[in-house]
UniProtKB/TrEMBL annotation:
<dbReference type="InterPro" id="IPR043137">
    <property type="entry name" value="GGT_ssub_C"/>
</dbReference>
<feature type="region of interest" description="Disordered">
    <location>
        <begin position="479"/>
        <end position="499"/>
    </location>
</feature>
<dbReference type="InterPro" id="IPR029055">
    <property type="entry name" value="Ntn_hydrolases_N"/>
</dbReference>
<keyword id="KW-0808">Transferase</keyword>
<keyword id="KW-0378">Hydrolase</keyword>
<protein>
    <submittedName>
        <fullName>Gamma-glutamyltranspeptidase</fullName>
        <ecNumber>2.3.2.2</ecNumber>
    </submittedName>
</protein>
<dbReference type="InterPro" id="IPR051792">
    <property type="entry name" value="GGT_bact"/>
</dbReference>
<keyword id="KW-0865">Zymogen</keyword>
<comment type="similarity">
    <text>Belongs to the gamma-glutamyltransferase family.</text>
</comment>
<dbReference type="GO" id="GO:0016787">
    <property type="term" value="F:hydrolase activity"/>
</dbReference>
<keyword id="KW-0012">Acyltransferase</keyword>
<dbReference type="Pfam" id="PF01019">
    <property type="entry name" value="G_glu_transpept"/>
</dbReference>
<dbReference type="GO" id="GO:0103068">
    <property type="term" value="F:leukotriene C4 gamma-glutamyl transferase activity"/>
</dbReference>
Amino acid sequence: MTRGVVAAGHRLTAEAAAGILAEGGNAFDAAIAAIAMATVAEPVLTSLGGGGFLMARRAGGETALYDFFVETPLRRRPDSEVSVEAILADFGPVTQEFHIGLGTTATPGQVPGLFAIHEALGSVPIARLFAPAIETARDGMRLTRFQTYLFDVVAPILSASESARAIFAPEGHLLREGDLLRNLGLAETFERLVEEGPSLFAEGEVGQAICAQCKEHGGHLTKEDLAAYRVVERDPLIWRHRGGALALNPPPAASGALIAYGLGVLEALDDERSDTLHLFRALAATNDARRRHGEGLADRLRGGALDDEFAQLAAHPPAYRGTTHISVIDAEGNAAAVSLSNGEGNGHMVGNHGFMLNNMLGEEDLSPDGVGRWREGVRLSSMMAPTIISEADGTVTALGTGGSNRIRTAILQVALNLVEHGMDLETAVCAPRMHVEKSGKLSYEPGLDMGEALQEASEVHAWPERNLFFGGVHAARRHPDGSLEGAGDPRRGGDSVIV
């Protein structure tokens, strides 16, 4: 008898969830174990100092979105007291400027999120769910090739402080593929969380260490920020397309409304032109819609069905940062799609507690008037898009991806591959993708017949092979007969396990 399926960004993350499923835990228990393990196994992409979202579908069909993403601090310190530093991340072909330092840290939600999800949906004791992460952090794990690449990309962050170097460069140089990464401080933090619960991060020792570090080294966070943080349960944005119902991340997240808008534009394009041209136009139109916050959508989509959603986004500044994803479906049909982010990290470990706080406030798009000009006390918008698709025949798919502003385009295309083109899950995930920037630049992977789309793009970049630039969709699927599929995207070192 199969117990369920997991797809994630690292083999250890998937195995942690699979172990819980094998013991009879539900999809949400497995997701909690995977979140904990991801903070150990995928430290560049997620952390106890970050945040995220869970799209949860109970076996009976009831679906809810749990928002534990980061918030801007309640009070902004004067610029003269704030520590912010620009660094260059090296992706190989291009570099990108990020900002780190304590002044870039928003109020984290990951720990409150873990416990809120467990209270609402869990069935297995939290000690059991954290056990795989504790064991791996204590004993160590061997770095993969993909992790080595990520370490190289954010090398200035992982070597920005003595505390970070002690974990990621213990012998004076960054750890490489095959090297052992150990984090005894993180193992101890998880053990303390088992004993003390989320209060450890609110008013307990870890919360006190966060506040002291921010006060002494140019951060904004105070005990009031940590005490005031709340996980928010939201109704998902439901969008129907070609017989499938997509449960999408609602506002203040931007992703769900943008994916729905793109699908709506495709439905409106009913001429005989090529699929790739339709897709190019839908992606370009979605970029325009995001800039206009919903103006004029009434004449395009079902009497303006998304006007309210787009209008809400103006009040929540966007954050487009490094992300990982976990998808789980159990034998009963419970489904969990979890997207997580720590930005890239602020460069400083919190005391001896084994984790780095986020650098979400260093996002340039967050502060169009300059880094540090963000609004106070606001839940940030996000492009993270944990999604659950329910098809007319009872098939359920949980999916999501990393990829910054490419997240929504990756999810839209995989959804189309499944719902419109009837692909199996692995084929749908691995199929070539395209992306359209706000400038009109078209990027695409080999294998797509671009045809007329090339004539409408302002600039074209043909990638020589599949690339992590186009996201890393990790997906799990359950069919009405109980059969399961899992697909971890090879673009981002993904893996899947059926148990």
